[in-house]
């Protein structure tokens, strides 16, 4: 499915740019899909388990030829934890602090966990087990980064 | 197959030295390390040429934009051995996390195998000018591409996530952690070389400090420093002829194979499941039972690690550490208090990684802890880093 098109203004005059991902042979499909606001994840061709991030070796079946292929996922999950970041250690995040990072277990697979920004703001009513769905931040032309929003909060 | 270490109690710590711990020391780190190593050798009653092994833990652990330079921001065993003016036959640096347990294991194994007779083991820490973890990267390539673009970066968010998971799961209050930090600073304030010497912290000061990665407050984090510590290890037999009472290395364990996750993603269950394995291997290796430990020096580079280690080592049930630490039960000044931070830890000394834990085990078990000396200190554990990634060492005042 296509995840929601939550976006955020990326470019303010004079603001430092956020670090942009550099796709490589393995990750190129992930970033190409993200640019279209679709979440796809690497799935091992040997055991069919998802891995975040993919690796030379499948973390589940330990195959040395996992042949990871990216498949669409729902982007839905539940919050396992969160933290409110109040100091920016990277360029481009000063204008975002404070912001919430959520640790999300996706519905597709037990313990399939992804960490991203919660775009509902620092005072969002986040709690353990809260439902979230993937959203995307357009941070540069043709570059979008996965994030999350609370389900039903908007 | 027994998990007991074949060389259990066959190697001992025979001496130590410690530099001042400061935000920035004007002398070059390498020179400070060499002075400290020479002081440790002298403390053990040895001459430099008798020390034929040099072991270091040399990782420079920052996520900031700092290039590690040997002798300046880190000191490897090779750098130091080259400048010691002797010709050591065994030189090795441990590069992983859990630097002190890893380096102790390397030194112990070398001595037990006969690769060296006397090993000096050291750790030199450097605090670069500027913000420790600030990074100027514009592009996130390789493994960074999976976390950096969304702002998941550095050790503060690393510890903020599992700490909050703990608080939420067990209904713990953030305020409970004050007991841990105040105890560390109380003890560190009594140590002359500590960055926090004569500067204890009150509960009110702890609570008034700002959040930096909720629920992590400023004083939940150790402060980056310059500082060096060195220890001399040798065989138990040789150690008995040296000036100080030997402290025996009974066993060690490291977090061997944590689940593969995003970089710096340490969910609470990973920490505790991996930590269970670390602790099980540790006690099997050392041949002791948890209830025999009377000096558990817990790692506190971030204060939540104290909760995790307390529960994993079996001092309180899972989810209860936040209650256990209250009401003076970890007060090292009370005869009935469990001394988990009597050496001040990293929170009370500065970011010396596992050094304060190891040093307190050595000082107490060798009877060299001065006014902090405890009546009963027989079996000690020195922990470092997260239980699933780092490691721990069991020390004993007597071979068994």
TrEMBL record, chain A:
Pfam family, one: zf-ChsH2
ChsH2 C-terminal OB-fold domain location: 72-137
Location of the ChsH2 rubredoxin-like zinc ribbon domain: 31-65
Annotated region described as Disordered, given as residue ranges: 1-21
Protein name from the UniProt record: OB-fold protein
Species per Swiss-Prot/TrEMBL record: Actinomadura algeriensis
From TrEMBL, chain B:
The organism's place on the tree of life at top rank: Bacteria
Thiolase C-terminal domain sequence ranges: 276-383
SUPFAM superfamilies: Thiolase-like
Residues passing through the membrane, by range: none
Pfam families (UniProt xref): Thiolase_C_1
Protein name (database record): Acetyl-CoA acetyltransferase
Organism: Actinomadura algeriensis
Classification of source organism: Bacteria, Bacillati, Actinomycetota, Actinomycetes, Streptosporangiales
